[in-house]
Design brief:
The structure holds 2 protein chains of 2 kinds.
Chain A: H1 3-21, H2 27-30, H3 40-53, H4 62-86, E1 88-90, E2 97-100, H5 105-119, H6 122-137, H7 141-171, H8 173-188, H9 191-202, H10 206-230, H11 234-242, H12 247-280, H13 289-299, H14 302-329, H15 340-343, H16 345-363, H17 365-368, H18 379-392, H19 394-418, H20 421-453, H21 457-487, H22 489-504, H23 507-518, H24 522-546, H25 550-558, H26 563-596, H27 605-615, H28 618-649
Antiparallel strand pairs in A: 1-2
Helix pairs in contact in A: 1-19, 3-28, 4-7, 4-10, 5-6, 5-14, 5-16, 6-14, 7-8, 7-10, 7-12, 7-13, 9-10, 9-27, 9-28, 10-12, 12-14, 13-14, 14-18, 14-23, 19-21, 20-28, 21-22, 21-24, 21-26, 22-24, 23-24, 24-26, 25-26, 26-28, 27-28
Chain B: E1 11-22, H1 26-30, H2 38-43, E2 47-58, E3 62-66, H3 73-80, E4 88-93, E5 96-97, H4 103-113, E6 114-117, H5 129-139, H6 144-157, H7 173-185, E7 191-195, H8 203-220, E8 223-228, H9 231-237, E9 240-245, E10 248-253, H10 255-260, H11 265-271, H12 282-285, E11 287-288, E12 297-299, H13 304-313, E13 318-321, E14 327-331, H14 333-340, H15 344-350
Parallel strand pairs in B: 3-8, 3-9, 6-7, 7-8, 12-13
Antiparallel strand pairs in B: 1-2, 1-4, 4-5, 9-10, 11-14, 13-14
Helix pairs in contact in B: 5-6, 5-7, 6-7, 13-14, 14-15
The chains are: A mainly alpha, B alpha/beta.
């Protein structure tokens, strides 16, 4: 064992000893004493209060500004809702009469098929048709259209905003430097924490939900835009100067078109993140499928929850496939001639179908709205299925749960909670010193000190415990899966497909089966987190193994290594930096999911955020959210530094 | 087929004491016209990409800048076109100092007077051949009809007629570079930069493209700055060659002078294996004065390789004429054979040097 290794083993044993001694330690060592606590949540609340009630930009107040923004978003949102869900009506409530109906279900499905054919081929068109027909037949149409309306508004805003900020960051390195840490923070602060201040600023309702969605979905677009513009070949940039492009010409005619395929990958990300957030934002008033799931979870209506969950999955798959196909299609130029109608046969057809079904629907209502009598409800089926599982396999499930809970989860939790906080701070800082010297040690010290002074130390350690165990389990499952995927083509395809599907699902959906089988509590939360966070562990491990130069493997084989030796002595060490980055991503996903599992009754920082959301306590929500971000940043920086060291040792430069 | 440097033609582009240093503080190193040595530069943690380069390019000349990778040739050509801002020096284009030209005027100069061909073609992937070639004209705001007429013209010049509606990815490397050449010629530039235009191509295609390039140049007579790391390519195409090393010019001379009188060991190492017949001209190996009987006469600029068969087969010597057709000497079959079998001294000392500045 190396010297470093033995030092850390010693420190671990010392920690264990300290934890055992915990009952005899003074109280101030276990929980930070009140004297050092700072009333951060009070400050944030007061600040927000000032912002909303008194702050002014001179001509208008902040409140007026937020109202203005809200009104600007409300207009297109209402228009989309009218088109897809409500139609134009007169009167209120039951007595409302429809003047112009919304776009009929037949027309929406036709449009989706046409989009699929446009984006790739008839098969994608058919898939789109089947998926959307599912929503109609299984009674999820209206909720799905509400969700779709939110996405139709949120995605262009996220894309345009991301493009603008990303381009600005590309053009001005100074702006880039200023924005980069903000993007980091936005991506590590858990989703729920966004919701609290937005709830405070914009109130409860679909507009606030849309704003949260855009803020959440935009950072990757900003990053991808900057990256894609930087990746335009240097010669093309020089060429644009040599032909005498002005700044605007350069951007519009050379840089953006060349970067388009990469930018479309960003659009796909924005769509998927928007879907994820629109579902979560049902907590602050986004209706639709997310609201159905939330409602079902609250009432433990298993059948309805699964139904809505499946509908979200269907929608996620449809949007993902469609936007990926559009991304691949990007940059294929248009060479059609003829009149507008000749050049756009599909658009023409869709418009015709909208008008015709709208008119026919006035006489034959089933053309307008999918008839109730023909709907199939799977609610009973799901409820029965779950009942059956719980009746027949109760013992097995329960003993599995208890086995892990009693032998792994609870001891770990007790161990972490028994550690004195100054000791934890010292350990984290020491790790920072070892991996990244002064700056990293300082960062670790500052962030752990922040955690100690928030008054949320216990919740923070609970978060670390749940996240840590989930990540370890995800790694134990994920890394071997990744190795398998990399060493066998068929397995690679199957695992890849499975992981891709897992990744398209909004985080909310994971809660449903878990709650059905294991009810609420830490264990359910852990399973949901593992499922959600599994993907990067698999992906990065497979990528790391695949990207090893084949010469190295051949060199090993020529030396007479067995397959196992090749794996252990060559492939795994070479793939280590990638595997570490995968674990890093797993931790990030685990933390973001952990906050959402507050819905199934955890007692960590996530629960704090969730509780703050329920009571609209901005300060508490923001502080708990930033605490999660602090844990994420510590983990991220430590692992990134470790991976860099491993890379440097292997002579790979990034 | 080789054009001599048009000795009398005016200077199109010249640069004086151009420097490009990378590092913490290049200005301090170069303050007050200082000329730091390579050691000075290294010791202060700078990199000398271009060091004190002065040269003149004449109208209608093919001026080749040759150097190995890292020698600074790419940086130099980017300084000349002001894609990179030099740390110090002067760059005069038609007598106008480019480094003092405003951005707005620079755009105008680039739009109308300069063209550049890139090593990796730099074609816009989302545009067709026709649209790519018309692109520089589009940037200038020329209407679609006019620019497409002009684009078709240059596409014809590079032999790509019929492929106007192809996209770059549907073309071979050689064809893509033809598009790059056509595009750079669409604006009828006065000064034509070619940055290793054929380096990314297979050897056979490269040769074909060099011939094509010479054919086009015969027709258009542009002022050309051509970058290459391939010495064979340099001597095939160049009127004059500038050899670069560590950011500085080592020697600027005709291919013949480089081979026959290398300035130092570095240049000599490049030229050692060049077959003399490819560079030596009749002017260099001729015996001065007219012979009594001659089989015919040839210009002094003719390369030995091109006339060897003719002269060797004849029993009589050939007369050698200057630019005005005046006979200034004669060449025997024997002198040709000396060159061909590499009796270098005989070749070098056999006749007087012709046209050395």
């Amino acid at each position: 064992m190396t010297r470093q290794g033995s030092v850390w083993l010693g420190l671990f044993l010392a920690s264990l000893g300290l934890a055992l001694l915990a009952p005899r330690l003074p109280a101030w060592a276990l929980d930070p004493p009140d004297a050092i606590l700072l009333d951060m949540s009070g400050w944030v609340s007061a600040g927000m209060d000032w912002l909303v009630n008194r702050a002014t930009f001179g001509l208008f107040t902040v409140k007026e500004a937020t109202r203005g923004i809200a009104a600007m978003i409300e207009l297109p949102y209402d228009a989309t809702r009218i088109a897809l869900v409500d139609g134009i009506t007169e009167g209120r409530g039951r007595r409302a009469t429809t003047i112009v109906p919304p776009i009929s279900w037949i027309a929406v499905i036709t449009a989706m098929v046409a989009l699929g054919i446009y984006a790739r081929n008839i098969w994608l068109g058919l898939l789109m048709g089947v998926l959307f027909a599912y929503l109609a037949v299984f009674g999820q149409w209206e909720s799905a259209m509400v969700t779709l309306a939110s996405i139709i508004i949120a995605v262009p805003m996220g894309v345009v905003g991301g493009l603008a900020l990303g381009t600005a960051a590309y053009l001005s390195p100074r702006f880039n430097r200023a924005m980069s840490p903000m993007l980091d923070l936005m991506q590590t602060v858990p989703t729920f924490a966004y919701l609290v201040p937005i709830l405070f600023l914009f109130g409860f309702g679909p507009v606030a939900a849309l704003i949260a969605t855009v803020i959440y979905a935009m950072p990757p677009m900003v990053r991808i835009t900057t990256m894609a513009l930087n990746a335009v070949p240097a010669e093309l940039k020089e060429f644009s100067l040599m032909v005498g492009c002005t700044g605007a010409q350069r951007l519009r005619k050379v840089l953006l078109p060349t970067a388009l395929p990469d930018l479309m990958v960003g659009v796909n990300q924005v769509i998927m993140l928007s879907l994820n957030m629109v579902i979560i934002a049902s907590m602050i008033g986004a209706g639709g499928l997310g609201f159905d799931v939330l409602n079902a979870l609250r009432r433990l209506d298993i059948g309805k929850g699964v139904e809505a969950g499946v509908a979200i999955t269907v929608m996620a798959v449809a949007l993902d496939r469609l936007s990926q196909a559009l991304a691949k299609r990007a940059g294929v130029p248009d060479l059609r001639n003829g009149s507008w109608v000749q050049r756009h046969p599909k658009t023409t057809l869709v418009v015709a179908v909208i008008v015709i079904t709208g008119l026919v629907g006035l006489v034959m209502p089933w053309v307008q709205t999918y008839p109730k009598e023909a709907m199939i409800s799977t609610r009973g089926f799901w409820a029965d299925l779950v009942k059956n599982i719980n009746v027949n396999y109760y013992d097995q499930l329960e003993s599995f749960k208890n086995l892990l809970l009693l032998n792994v989860l609870l001891p770990t939790k007790r161990f972490l909670l028994a550690l004195p906080w100054p000791w934890v701070m010292a350990l984290v800082t020491l790790a920072g010193w070892q991996l990244g010297r002064g700056r990293l040690a300082l960062l670790c010290l500052a962030l752990t000190a922040f955690l100690a002074t928030t008054g949320l130390w216990e919740q923070a350690m609970t978060t670390v415990y749940l996240c840590g165990i989930s990540v370890v389990i995800a790694a134990i499952i994920g890394i071997p899966l990744g190795i398998l995927a990399a060493s066998n083509a068929t397995a690679g395809k199957v695992i890849g497909g499975f992981i891709d599907t897992l990744q398209t699902l909004p985080s909310f959906v994971y809660l449903i089966p878990v709650v059905m089988l294991f009810r609420v509590g830490d264990f359910s939360a852990m399973i949901a987190v593992v499922l959600y966070a599994l993907a990067p562990a698999v992906r990065y491990a497979a990528h790391g193994l695949r990207s090893i130069p084949s010469e190295l493997i051949e060199a090993g084989t020529v030396c007479g290594c067995t397959r196992w030796q090749v794996l252990r002595r060559i492939r795994l060490p070479m793939a280590l930096p990638d595997i570490m980055l995968g674990i890093n991503q797993t931790i990030m996903l685990a933390l973001s999911m952990l906050v959402i599992t507050a819905l199934v009754g955890t007692r960590d920082l996530g629960q704090q955020v969730y509780a703050a959301l329920a009571t609209a306590d901005t300060g508490a929500g923001v502080v708990a959210g930033v605490s999660v971000a602090a844990i994420a940043i510590i983990a991220d920086r430590l692992i990134a530094a470790g991976a860099n060291r491993a890379r440097a040792r292997l002579g790979m430069t990034s | 087929m080789q054009d001599r440097p048009a000795k009398l033609s005016p200077v199109k582009l010249s640069c004086r004491h151009v420097w490009k240093l990378y590092g913490p503080n290049p200005d301090r190193l170069l303050a007050n016209g200082a000329a730091p040595s390579l050691d000075d530069i290294r010791r202060s943690n700078h990199v000398g990409a271009v060091r004190d380069v002065s040269l003149e390019v004449h109208e209608g000349e093919i001026f080749v800048i040759m150097g190995l990778s890292g020698s600074g040739k790419s940086t130099l050509v980017r300084c000349l076109s002001r894609l990179i801002e030099p740390s110090a020096g002067q760059i005069l284009f038609n007598g106008q100092d480019l480094l003092k030209t405003s951005d707005k005027d620079m755009i105008e100069i680039r739009r109308h007077r300069m063209g550049m061909v890139f090593q990796h073609f730099a074609l816009l992937p989302h545009l067709t051949v026709l649209q790519n070639v018309a692109f520089p004209l589009e940037i200038q705001g020329i209407d679609q009809k006019t620019r497409e007429v002009r684009a078709r013209e240059v596409i014809g010049l590079v032999g790509l007629t019929g492929r106007e509606d192809y996209f770059p990815r549907q073309l071979s490397g050689g064809q893509q570079q033809r598009v790059g050449i056509a595009r750079s010629l669409a604006v009828e530039p006065e000064l034509w930069f070619l940055d290793e235009p054929f380096s990314a191509l297979d050897p056979l295609i490269r040769r074909e493209m060099q011939d094509e390039f010479l054919r086009i140049q015969q027709k258009l007579k542009k002022t050309i700055i051509f970058i290459t790391h391939d010495f064979d390519e340099a001597i095939r195409l160049a009127g004059r060659i500038a050899i670069m090393k560590d950011g500085a010019l080592v020697q600027v001379a005709t291919p013949e002078e480089l081979v026959m009188a290398p300035a130092d060991d570095y240049v000599a190492a490049f030229t050692a294996h060049v077959p003399r017949a490819k560079v030596v001209t009749l002017g260099r190996i001729m015996t001065p004065g007219a012979a009594a009987h001659i089989a015919g006469s040839l210009p002094a600029t003719t390369r030995v390789e091109d006339a060897a068969d003719q002269i060797e087969a004849s029993a009589l010597p050939f007369g050698v004429t200057d630019d005005d057709g005046q006979v200034i000497g004669h060449v025997t079959g024997r002198a040709i054979i000396d060159v061909l079998i590499g009796r270098a001294d005989a070749a070098a000392n056999g006749g007087q040097s012709w046209g050395t500045p």
